[in-house]
Amino acid sequence: MRKAIPNLKRCWILPALFLSGFAFVSHRTTASPREKTAKEELLVLPEKVGRPGGRLVVSLRGEPKTLNPLIAADARSREVIGVMQADLVHINRATQEAEPALAKSWKISPEGLSYTLVLRRGLKFSDGHPLDADDVLFSFQVYLDESVHAPQRDLLIVGGKPIAVRKVDAYTVVFQLAKTYGVGERLFDGLAILPRHLLEKPYQEGKLGQIGSLATAAGQWAGLGPFRLKEYVAGQRLVLERNPYYWKSDVKGNRLPYVDELVFLFVPNADAQVLKFQSGETDMIGQLGAENFAVLSRQQRAYTMMDAGPGLEYNFLFFNLNDAGEKTSPEMQRKQKWFREVKFRQAVSAAVDREAVVGLVYQGRGSALWGLVATGNRRWGNEKLAHPTRSLERARALLKEAGFSWNAGSDGGSSLLDSDGKPVEFSILTSSSNADRAKMAALIQDDLKHLGMRVQVVPLESRSLLDRVTQSRDYDACIMGIASYDADPNSDISVWLSSGGLHLWNPSQAHPATSWEAEIDRLIEEQMSARTFEQRKKLYDRAQEILAENQPMIFLASPNILAGAKKTIGNFHPAVLEPYVLWNVEQLYLKNGTENATR
Amino acid sequence: MRVRRALTRWLVVLGLLHGIVICAGFFAPYDPAEQDRKSPYLPPMRLHLLDGQGHLHAHPFVYSLKLHKGSFDQYEEDTTEAQPVKFFVSGARYRLLGFLPSRRHLFGAENARICLLGTDAYGRDQLSRLLFGGQVSLVAGLLGAGITLLIGLAIGAVAGYFGGWRDTLLMRLAELFMALPWLYLLFAIRAFLPLTVSPLKAFFLIIVVIGTVGWARPARLVRGVVLSAKERDFVRAARGFGATNGYLLRRHILPETSSVLLTQAAILIPQYVLAEMTLSFLGLGVPEPVPSWGNLLSSLQQYSVLVSHWWMYLPAVVMVPFFLVYLGLASSLQERGDAYKIETRSLGNLT
Q1: What angle do CA B224, B225, B228 make, to 5 degrees?
Q2: B196 touching A, CB under 8 A?
Q3: Does the ipTM surpass 0.85?
């Protein structure tokens, strides 16, 4: 299945290439950068043909920190870099399949250790400099250089050894792996190919970490993405212009992207983004909350509002299972005695009303969750995973089995007592900036009240929340959410592995604390080098079952991806993978006669 | 006479308003924390006397609201079945005045929920939350003002009566306190407190914090009154007869400050209710699910609530009559105080 192009889904590419060749002859004859030159091997996209021109304005949650993919760690920088850079193989955000990008084809050797990628010919960076295998070699050299500290480095260490890259000719590159790697060609997604002609000098001088600030002059930064840098106004906006050398075209041979300019406005607050969108200052809006989506949907005539379906964000409740040894306070020891009891966690899970979470928090635009792989992930979900309905009786029975008892309270309610006769009371942390999770906490608080547990909800600023959970580890329970960036479950590897930093209930363990954590570790390690999807899926399914049995994370719900655009935007198809609305930015266009008013 | 009549009028209205809030358990139809997850953001139900066929009913009734198909927050009246409003029904348990257990509520319906002021995001009855929330906010205001006045009285009396370095020190301290940006101070204090505090503890902490911060102004006023009172002839006479400081303060001087203190109380209480609301609005007050006027309003921080659910503003409207009455009372008290002063001063001139 992992041979070059011959995948039925990609059959359109070859005929489309021919078509575009004809289009070049028959279409407009004036030489403009929108036309392609014959020797370039452009990627032809099958979507509806749009209209060139105009500009697109979107809001960004704040200023990106950098344009440099080697140091970008924040979501905002990644979003901007996503439209300025390109990768060898790209995961189509709509189909969730790997597709050819800068590499027009690839071959994987039968034993799965060497990947041969063939580059498109005649491509140029956004400053007109040609691309060849040396740029690819340089990019991976930089990613793998320990002194650069690129966040991508970890992804390129397979079987304990960095991937070796070798040039065969100017357009062919071979990647050699030390061990088979289950992710396959998806590995190349998101790894931008960097302009060697611009970065080689700073690299040799050891200054790679300092370049690529937003204030960089437009001519000194280049990429292979659909847009290139034009102007940056600190605190207000980042203006990108279309890359005239971009390597994709539509079926009529028009070079993409359609719009001339892409503007990012820096709007830090979700509600302010909605207001900007309503006032017409921005053309599209993504990552909408369900309530704001409902507000905008009531004005349907002006907007196209889209519910792209369940996304990859999963929200969950977890208890503090860290073992601080002798430093644990007696109170914490008492609480952890409950938390470590599997039946206690199962009882909590049984008492949580997930339907209410979906209904009240997401207004029905979400789905209840029982496992780590979110509902939006169609390929990897474990259909056999049990979806037990909410049952307070089962929860009470479980607690009883675990030695808990109840005493009748003074005003009708009863309170839960542990085996030592102490009342069960604990607090749940949530992020104060996330209204959705605060609501989940309030619902769970009420659910657990029915079991006699007294729960307090403590909203905390998100940074100190994360600090408490991963550093000082001084908390009882916490509600968090994680959005996987890829449909492949390996993107959540640091949640699965007991050594991972996002193994939140007990992060970064030297040795797995429990036998089931050790078992999950083993399954995940094994699937890393499994060759086929079926093998990997089987291992992941088993890991999910173990997780569901032991409930270290009590999964709650997963929101749908909600987005909106003005009616005048064409080819608007939000996806459930990041970047939700900008993944096909090169194909977005402004419909006829709707020149942007904000110009 | 006119002043006294106005004063009585204000006091009666105030008593009525507080009476309703104190007996919230009786007037509120439901438990304020009880969630009805089937009906979030239910708009206020309308009381009807005429049904769909135009028949007049002797009893007021409501129609239950049901969700529009496919919507999660749009409701329509289900006119097939009228739900008559029943009075003095038995319902959720509560404790009247904090100790009398009861289940009797002023009104309710037999097989439906009546939400005259709608519901919030969790389907909790807004009217019940408003009434119970008033308990928290008003008690915070009253107790906070009490603490402030006590501290203010003590410090003002000491500063005014003893004078000298004590006066200078205390008054400079008062100026320091007045110059403090108290809202930020409250934030800072709240941030230093432990992460998890029970609702009751959080409530008393707020009261203490609010109460101790605001003593400077009443202290200065009290000091002024004490300064002038201690030079009055009858005080000098009493001192001549060998009265002790304690006796003089208790018998002759502090009673003089009563009108200032009462006026201050009437001004401070609404101010402190507002302070509690501000803190709760910003999430630093009593935690969920305990209602207070401030955290009832805090959902308005979300744009979608702001534009879609107008009944979420009601807690803000409810405090208006309270504040008006308190301020009316304050001005009546001041008038009375002024009249009293003029009376005594003219008497003093005569003798």
Answers
A1: 90
A2: yes
A3: no
